[in-house]
Amino acid sequence: MNSIIEDLNWRYAVKQFDSTKKVSDSDFEVVKESLRLTPTSYGLQSFTALIIESNDLREKLIEASYGQRQVADASHLIVLCSYSTIKNEDVDSYMQLISNTRNVAMEHLEGFSNTIKGTVNSRTEEEILNWSTRQTYIALGQLLHTCASLRIDTTPMEGFDPAKYDEIIGLSERNLTATLVCPVGYRHEEDSAQHGAKVRKPLDDLIQTI
Amino acid sequence: MNSIIEDLNWRYAVKQFDSTKKVSDSDFEVVKESLRLTPTSYGLQSFTALIIESNDLREKLIEASYGQRQVADASHLIVLCSYSTIKNEDVDSYMQLISNTRNVAMEHLEGFSNTIKGTVNSRTEEEILNWSTRQTYIALGQLLHTCASLRIDTTPMEGFDPAKYDEIIGLSERNLTATLVCPVGYRHEEDSAQHGAKVRKPLDDLIQTI
Questions:
Q1: Which residues contact B108 (CB under 8 A, 6 or more apart)?
Q2: Structural domain boundaries enclosing B141
Q3: How far apart are CA A168 and CA A180, in angstroms?
Q4: Domain count of chain A?
Q5: With an 8 Å Cβ cutoff, is B36 touching chain A?
Q6: Could you tell me the CATH number of the domain that includes residue B112?
Q7: Which tens digit of pLDDT belongs to each residue from A163-180?
Q8: ipTM higher than 0.85?
């Protein structure tokens, strides 16, 4: 079997982590760099990854995650947050980053800047959040793949209370909305979920050629 | 450099494909299988990947893609579509798939089935489409990563006219909404975009430890 497919088949949503096993610093650097390299619309990177190290916070987040202990038991807890709003200043900072990285004068970026600002300013606050949220799901897709390739386990979670996360972590003052929670670490040998055959539609049901 | 990071750094959004280069059948099987293994909420897989082989359709889609020729010039064109609605029958089919795959009696799946149906039926049509759309972005994240690992180029595209795609491909009669377009193939040696340094925020701006 192709090694990519082996990686993706190895992955499953962990129900019980082995809390004694920690992801090494060198592996976690790859995980972080993979997040950083996530492709996003216009390259705006309108998300932030919060790594929750505080045990106190992680214990509090269990209840806000409907009792799912993975948020406290996994080696690391990543909370992927989306920008609640995108302001012209965010676009300006991005242009500055491009200018610095590629050694391009700011005036040559005006067209691109205006395009993005036009898009951003034509959208309602709800549409902006929806848009930035979608980019955050790309980050999740890339994150899960990277972890699987490193043989690091994950539990992608939509099932949590964003308002409680906001309250516990203090997100709104950072202009962030919690979109996805992803504990990463190593499966417990007693996690029976690892033995279930992977359930996926046959290729012909999922993919159609026209 | 770690090989995963090498792959992700190699990737960029191709502006011009070499239309003479085709992705091999064996590589494209990996691409399709990677789409099939995409993790989704509850495992529902509420998306469909359409592979547009018809040259006639692909030429028509250029205009619906605001003139971006990649949709016609790339080796393969993938249109990722989200379920516009999710019906109880979709959940029932999924339960049947679990039952067959894991050899579990349908009655043991009733709790899980009711949970999903409860979620689905409590949401408006717009919320369902938003939800299924987000899952489709996970598929994109996994797809881009897989292609990069295979050294296959991609152009992830949000910038197209979904209504025109619907009309040209006939999506609404399939209960689908076009979410993302992704031409895959090989960069043209004259595509100057490949030489631009990758622009990404520094790690400390994107990732915060608490």
A1: none
A2: 3-206
A3: 15
A4: 1
A5: yes
A6: 3.40.109.10
A7: 999 999 999 999 999 999
A8: yes
